Amino acid sequence: MTPDPNLTERSPDLLPARMLNEFTYCPRLFHLEYVQGEFEDSADTVSGRFRHRRVEDERGEVPKPGEGEEKVMFHARSVLLSGEKCGLIAKMDLIEGEGDKVTPVDYKNGSKPDFVEEAWFPDRVQLCAQGLILRENGYVCEGGVVYYTQSKTRVEVEFSDELVKTTLNLAEAAREAAETSAIPPPLVDSPKCPRCSLVGICLPDEVRALTSAEGGKPVEDEEVRRLCPARDDALPLYVQEQGLTVAKKGEELEIRAGSSAVSRARLMETSTVVLFGNIQMTAQALHELCTRDIPVCYFSQGGWFYGVTQGMSHKNVELRMKQYATAGDPAKALPIARSFVSGKIRNCRTLLRRNHRESPDGALAELSRLSDMALACGDLDALFGIEGAAGRVYFSQFGGMLKRDPVSMTFDFHTRNRRPPKDPVNALLSFAYALLAKTVTVTLLTVGFDPFLGFFHRPRYGRPSLALDMMEEFRPLIADSVVIGLINNQELSKSDFVCRAGAASITPDARKKLLRAYERRLDTLVTHPVFGYTISYRRILEVQARLLGRYLTEEIKEYPVFVTR
C-alpha cells in the first residue's frame, strides 16, 4: 500500500480534496479510507498510479500573487496548497497560469463520461475544491480542467456559484462525518461497488443483508453478490531449510543458500512470508515487506508459532477500542464466545458425521446437546466446561475417521495430547493448529484487531487469544480435515515421523507435505452458509474477521458464525 501524503501529513482541520471526491462518490468509502485508514489496491488503482506518474514530480514555479508577468505562461506540477477559511488542502497535479490567473488541471484514470457535463460529479467537486484553495491564496481562478488519461480528453469545468456552494456544503458534511465513529450504511445494489477497491473491506451486500436479517439469516429476497474474487492471487511463501537467507532483488524475493539463489518469489504474488527456525532475512527485504504490508511470521524449527513482523499499516484505533471495551465486559464478551464455541461443536459434529467409518449416533447426539448448551450458557467458566466436554466427545471418536494400518499402527489414535504430542496423529494436529493460528493472527492484524485480546480465551503473555477464539469454528473444517486427508490418502508413512522417549515429531519432508495440503485446503472453494456465494476458506477467514468488526461497532446485530452444512 502506498500511503497518501495528504492523509498521513494532514492538519486535523483540513480536509484533503481527494477525500472530498471519495465522500461525494460514496460516504462509506470516505469513512473507510479517511477515518479508519483502510486501503486496498485494485487493477484500477494500480493503473491510475501508473498513468498519474507524469505529474508526481514537483516541477515548475508558481509566482506569488501580484508577481507573475502578464502574457507569460507557466506550468507547475504537484503543487501542495491549503486554505484555512475553506478548510481544504490539495496536492494539485498541474497548475497552468498567466499572471495571477490560474487553472488547476486534475488527472483522472478512465475515459470521459458520455453525458452533458462531460465530467463525473465527484471529479468536478474535487476540482472546484482546488479552485477554492487557489482563490484563498490570492489567485484568480474561474475554472479548471479534468484530464481523463485513457481517452486523452480535457474537460473544462466552470466554477459556478452553484458548484462552489455545493462543494462547500459537501466539505462541511464530510468533516462532520469524519468526527463520528459510526460508519455510513452501504450503498444499495449500487453499480459502484463491483469496481471499488475496498469492496472486500466494506462488504456492502453482506452488511446490508445482515442488517435486515431475521433470526440471524438474510431474508430470502436479499441477494448477496460476490463482489470479490473467489480466491486470492497472492499466496504465502514458506521457507524451512535451515541456513537459507531471504533477500530482495528487484520485484522479487530471492531465497539464497550462501551466494547462490535456490528459489524466487514475486513480491506482488506473496501474501505472507513464513520462516521456520534458523532462516535469515536481509534488512532490505524486511523493509520492503513492511512497506507492502506483507507480514513475516516466525516459527521454531519444530513448528511453534512465536512472532510476527508487520508494517505500520492499520490505523483503525476505533475498532481496537471497541474490542478492548467488549473484552473487558463479560456480559458483552459472552455472546461472541458462545457463537465461537457453538460453531466449533457443530462443525466437529458435521466432520464426524461425514467421515466416521460407522455412525457414532451417541456422540453426534451429545455434540448436538452441548452445542445447544453453549448457545444458552450464561457464564464464561461454564462455557469452558462445555467446550472441554465437547472436545472429549469429539476426540474419543476421532480415530474412527482415520484409515487403520493394522501392520505399523502408525496412525492409531486414542486421545488428544500435546506439549509434546505423544503420537504421529497428535503431532500432525499440533502443527496444523499452529499454522491455522498463524493464518488467523495475520488476518486479524490485517483487519485492524489486536490478536492478543480475545473474548473466550483469557489473555496470557504471548498468546494470540483472539486468534484462538476465531479459529475455533475452523479447527475441524481446516486443520482436522487436512490431517484426516493426509492420512486417509496415504500421503504419509511411519518414516515421516520421529518418535523418541514417548514424544513424536514430524520430519521436514512431512512438514512440506502438510504445508502443501494446508494451502490446498485454504484454497478450497466452499459455499458460505449465510450469503450463498462460493469463495475459498482463505477468503472466508477474512470475511468472518471483518464481520466480527462490524458486530463490535454495532453495525450488525449478530456475529454470523460459520457453520458448514
Describe the structure in brief.
This protein is of the alpha/beta class.
Architecture overview:
The chain has helices at residues 5-8, 17-25, 27-35, 43-52, 121-136, 161-178, 199-202, 204-211, 283-291, 317-327, 330-355, 361-376, 380-396, 424-447, 465-471, 475-488, 508-522, 537-552, and strands at residues 15-16, 73-83, 88-98, 101-108, 143-148, 153-158, 235-239, 245-249, 252-257, 260-266, 270-276, 280-281, 296-299, 305-309, 497-500, 503-506, 525-527, 534-536. It is of the alpha/beta class and 565 residues long. Helix 14 (424-447) packs across helix 15 (465-471). The radius of gyration is 28 Å and the shape is elongated. Residues 1-11 have low confidence and may be disordered.
